[in-house]
Design a protein that fits this description.
Helix content: 40-55%
Shape: globular
Bound molecules: adenosine-5'-triphosphate, magnesium ion
Number of domains: 2
EC number: 6.1.1.2
Pfam family, one: tRNA-synt_1b
CATH topology of the largest domain: Rossmann fold
Family: Belongs to the class-I aminoacyl-tRNA synthetase family.
Organism: Rhizobium terricola
GO biological process, one term: tryptophanyl-tRNA aminoacylation
Strand order of the largest sheet: 1-2-3
Length: 350
Amino acid sequence: KPLVFSGVQPTGNLHLGNYLGAIRKFVALQEHHDCIYCVVDLHALTAQLVHDDMPGQIRSITAAFLASGIDPKAHIVFNQSAVPQHAELAWIFNCVARIGWMNRMTQFKDKAGKDREQASLGLYAYPSLMAADILVYRATHVPVGEDQKQHLELTRDIAMKFNLDFMEHIRRTGLGTDITVGDEPVHAYFPMVEPLIDGPAPRVMSLKDGTKKMSKSDPSDLSRINLMDDAEAISKKIRKAKTDPDALPSETEGLKGRPEADNLVGIFAALSDRTKEDVLNEFGGQQFSVFKPALVELAVDVLSPVNGEMRRLMGDTAYIDSVLRDGGERARARAEKTMKEVRDIIGFVQ
Ligand code: ATP
Ligand code: MG
C-alpha cells in the first residue's frame, strides 16, 4: 500500500480550512493507503516559542483526528516530538537545502512579517523539518491544503539533491532503487513525494477577506469557522461573512473577481461533496440571503457530529495520551530504520 504522511500544528483552534484542506482527506485515504498522521508540535515552536497550554493543544488536534474518523489502530497517530529522528533528519536536510531555496518560501515571508531579522531561525528552516517529517518514513503521498504546495516542491528538491549528491554512497550501500525523474534515470534512496491537493476547496479563505487564507493564527475569530464552534456560532459567522451585493452567478466563470462568493460556493461544494458547477446549478440567480442559510444548515449538519465527539474525547485525556504513546512507539521504530540507513549512506560510524 502507498504510504501517506501528513501533519497539523497544535497552534490553536482547528478550522474549516484544516478540515476540508487536510483532515477530511486524511480520513478518506485510510481505505487504500498506509497512513501516518502527526501532530507537529516541533513546528509549533517556530512562530511562537512559549505556549500556555501546549498539552491541551496537542490533545485537541489528536481528538479532532479521532473524532473525524481516523483509526489509530489501523494507522499511526502520534506527536512529532516523540520521534527525535524527525529532528535528526531535519539537521541533515539543513545541510542539503540551500539558503537561496529557503529565501523563496512565501509562508516564511508571510509569517515573519516586517521585521524579518527578528523571526526565529526555526521559522526559516521550517520547510526542511517538514521534508524530514515526510521522508523519514519515505512516504510518497502527502495530503495538504494548497498553501503547502511550495513546501512540497522543496521536499522534492531536497530528496533529489540528497539522491544525486550521495548517489555513489547509495549504490555502495545497496539501499536505493532505480527511478526516473522526468527522463533522468536516478538511483534514489528518497522517493519523490506526490502532493494530494484537490477537491473544490483546496484553499479555504477567510470569511472576512476573500484574498487571505483562513488561518488558526488570524486574530479575528469571525474570520474562521472552528471545529469546536456550536450551531449558533457557525450561524453567526456565516451570516456576518463578507459578500458582495450581487446574486450568485449560474456558472463558475461568474465567480471570477468575486473572491468572497467564490469561497462560500467552494465551501458549500466541499461540505456537500459536490462540484461548484453543481452548486451554482442549484443556487445561480439567488441572493446571499437565500444561499447563506442553506450553507449554515449544511455546515452545522457536517460539523456537529465531529464537534460532539471531539468534546467527548477531550474529557478522556488518558485515552488520548495512550493513543499518542502507542503511535509514537510504532512511528519511532519505522523512523529509526530509515535513520540507520541514512547514517550508513552518509558514512557515520554507528
Ligand atoms: P497556522 O496559522 O498556525 O499556520 P494553519 O491554519 O495554517 O495554522 P496548519 O497546521 O499550518 O494550519 O496546517 C494544517 C493543514 O491544514 C495543512 O495541510 C494546510 O495545508 C491545511 N490548511 C491550513 N489552512 C488552510 C486553508 N485555509 N484552506 C485549506 N487548507 C488549509
Ligand atoms: Mg499553516
